[in-house]
Amino acid sequence: MTLSDVTTRELRELASRYPQSRSALLPMLHLIQAAEGNVTNEGIEVCAEILGISAAEVSGVATFYTMYKRRPMGEHHVGVCTNTLCAVMGGDLIFERLKGHLDVGNDETTEDGKVTLEHIECNAACDFAPVMMVNWEFFDNQTPESAVEVVDKLRAGEPVKATRGATITSWREAERVLAGFEDGLADEGPAAAGPSLAGLEIAAERGWSAPTPGAVKAKPTDVADTKVEAVEQADTSRAESETKQEEGKDD
Amino acid sequence: MTDTLTPVLSADWGTDRAWTLKAYKKAGGYAALETALKMAPDDVIAMVKDSGLRGRGGAGFPTGMKWSFIPQDNPKPKYLVVNADESEPGTCKDIPLMMATPHTLIEGVIIAAHAIRAKTAFIYVRGEVLHVVRRLRAAAREAKKAGYLGTDILGSGVDVELIIHAGAGAYICGEETALLDSLEGRRGQPRLRPPFPAVEGLYASPTVVNNVESIASVPSIVKNGIDWFGSMGTEKSKGYTLYSLSGHVARPGQYEAPLGITLRELLDLGGGMRPGSELKFWTPGGSSTPLLTAEHLDIPLDYEGVGAAGSMLGTKALQVFDQTTSVVRCVLRWTEFYKHESCGKCTPCREGTWWLVQTLQRLDEGQGKDGDIELLLDLCDNILGRSFCALGDGATSPITSAIQYFREEFESGMHTPSRELFPPAASTLFAQEVTAS
Predict the structure, then answer these.
(1) B51: number of Cβ within 10 Å
(2) Is B302 exposed, middle or buried (0-12, 13-18, 19+ CB in 10 A)?
(3) Do B131 and A187 touch (CB under 8 A)?
(4) With an 8 Å Cβ cutoff, are B166 and A182 in contact?
(5) Which pLDDT tens digit goes with each residue over B173-189?
(6) Structure confidence at residue B105 as a pLDDT band (50, 70, 90)
(7) pLDDT above 80 for A245
């Protein structure tokens, strides 16, 4: 299989979007996955040629990031969060159930080529735990049963909609959006749902809001005026030690 | 007296099609930009500095001061990079913000770029959030079409191009210098500081790296003033912020409140813990901040209050665990995460997290050896402050704090597996369903 002219042209276009072309490497590798189904050797060579760097450098990048796959993927990527909070809230049981149901291990694809299952790290939706992602779309508050239902529909080719997001397309189409090409689905799904609105709803019930501008005065202030004060107050001891080092160098 | 909850960033999340330019403008959006563009860049910096806004990504460094470090006499281009790589376990505030109201962030980006005189800005968003990437790209397109991005914005002579850049799955890229290497198309590994990004950042040019929430807070400060902002929060921790409540609570979610609210107050608002649950331990700001317990329910959740309790405010990611949860299991899982995400650049983190996982696995299986607790503490001592970046430091936080508060559970790991002491099914969201079947 060889990369099409269209893909090569789009790769060059991505490279031209940045002040320095190498910045486009991550998007270009996303596009290779969209076009080829994974990061292929040929894809690596083409990226290297376009950016004027070695294939080894591209390969080094492609193997560093977990979203890049060096083996062919299923039509859909199903990720179950098994980082601590989701794991405790049920993610471990969901992952076990899906492994058994799909008869695959971690990072493996079903025999029909429809689903690649992977356990994933925290996906920034902890208030919706346990969370599952399909082609990097949110499936909130899952149970083993609901997760099985989703993968069964995916395998049967039935339409599936994310709980906060769009109708599921495919992993490759998702990769194309990540690379930098819109698919027209931004207007699907809600602005926010469920837990995202918890505080807002409570505030509305109780008539609470931020103060009215002009009607309030700032409380007494003791914020840092100098760099030394700021790094002392900062949440990390590193800022302090590094700044001292910098000051030392300036002497 | 300020209200207990003060929705600002989240105020419009419930609005129909809140992500569109039309809805954002209807809610008063881009008015702050018009004001800021009429101000001299240094005046915008002074305003943000005087507001007392501190970085919302974890470190709490004053945002305006960071902007003032950009050497304007440096002839190289200046860059603004928004850190939207939200990946710290427990942290889930920036993703809903960008999903619901991406224009709030974009308006902040344009104001900040004007202030530091950057003509190119980037939003580095983690790749694993497809719909957020869609909404950001659509919002940037709409903003450009309306003349808020591009050249000569609203006739002010200010030019700003915005590039939405999706990452590819690496927690370390949330570290600002690793993020810059990643944005340059390299493996995301941290850089030695100094030089700080303000002097040599992206393409070795002066660069400001700010968290999403920090930048998104800027339009509200420009629009409503520093007195308004400073009327919320505490003396050293000014303003409002998003607290993210998750775990064994009755009502998990986003709670926007003045800095200094307590976990007890937040829990009370949402009906407390889930039925039958008692608070056992919690993280104040993600897994890299030392665990706290029920005795810390009344500490003010600001930079100073959490610091005084021996932890860090971090990203205000309040992960709450009840009595059904094994602390050993949790700490093992977090440590496996740090091991997986360690970039490999420095030895203490790369090798240390490996040893930590091996030791914790034994304890989790009830096969711990005499001296394993001391071994864990010794390993942590050799990682904290000796690793190249804060990832290694963070990896030690859950371990040392868990041993401090729950040493007896680690001692039980010498003979009893955690799953026997704390059957995992009892902790799940669908606990009743599981126990019934």
Answers:
(1) 28
(2) buried
(3) no
(4) no
(5) 999 999 999 999 999 99
(6) very high
(7) no
Which two three-digit tokens encode residue A227?
């760099």
List CB contacts (< 8 A) between B434 and chain A. 93
- Residue A227 reports pLDDT greater than 90: no
Smallest Cβ–Cβ distance between B252 and the set A177, A195, A200 belongs to: A195
Name every chain A residue with its beta carbon within 8 A of the beta carbon of B61: 230-231, 234, 239
Q: A130 preceded by cis ω (within 30°)?
A: yes
Smallest Cβ–Cβ distance between B251 and the set A182, A198, A210 belongs to A198
Chain-chain contact of A196 with B96 (C-beta, under 8 angstroms): yes
Residue B1: what pLDDT? Answer: 77
pLDDT of residue B347: 97
CB pairs under 8 A between A and B: 370
pLDDT at A196 over 50: yes
Residue type, A171: W
B-chain residues near A217 (CB < 8 A) = 227, 230-231
What's the one-letter identity of residue B369? K
Residue A218, pLDDT > 90, answer no
Give the 3-state secondary structure of residue A210: coil
Pick from B88, B84, B41, B66: nearest CA to B197: B66
Mean pLDDT over residues B313-332, rounded?
98
Q: How far apart are CA A217 and CA B173, in angstroms?
A: 39
Nearest to B375 by CA among B347, B403, B338: B403
B14 vs A211: CB contact, 8 Å cut-off? Answer: no
Q: Which structure tokens are listed for B116?
A: 């530091």
Pairing of strands B292-293, B279-283: antiparallel
Q: What is the pLDDT of residue A1?
A: 55
What mean pLDDT is reported for chain B?
97
pTM of the complete model:
0.97
Place A42 in a pLDDT band, splitting at 50, 70 and 90.
Answer: very high
Q: What is the ipTM of this complex?
A: 0.96
What is the per-residue pLDDT for B435? 46
Please report the DSSP string for A70-132 in residue order: SSPPPSEEEEEE-SHHHIIIIIHHHHHHHHHHHT--TTEE-TTS-EEEEEE---S-GGG-S-E
Closest-approach residue (CA) in chain B for A219: B231
Q: How many whole angstroms separate alpha carbon B433 and alpha carbon B410?
A: 30
Q: Which residue of A has its CA nearest to B77?
A: A19
The Cα A89–Cα B321 span in angstroms is: 10
Q: Look at residue B77 in the predicted model and tell me its pLDDT.
A: 98
Specify whether the CB–CB gap between B153 and B145 falls below 8 A: no
**Burial class of residue B308 in the structure, from the number of CB atoms within 10 Å of its CB (0-12 exposed, 13-18 middle, 19+ buried):** exposed
Residues of B in contact with A125 (CB under 8 A): 92, 95
End-to-end Cα distance, chain A: 60
The structure tokens listed for B337 are: 């995460």
- Tell me how close the Cα of B174 comes to any Cα of chain A, in angstroms: 13
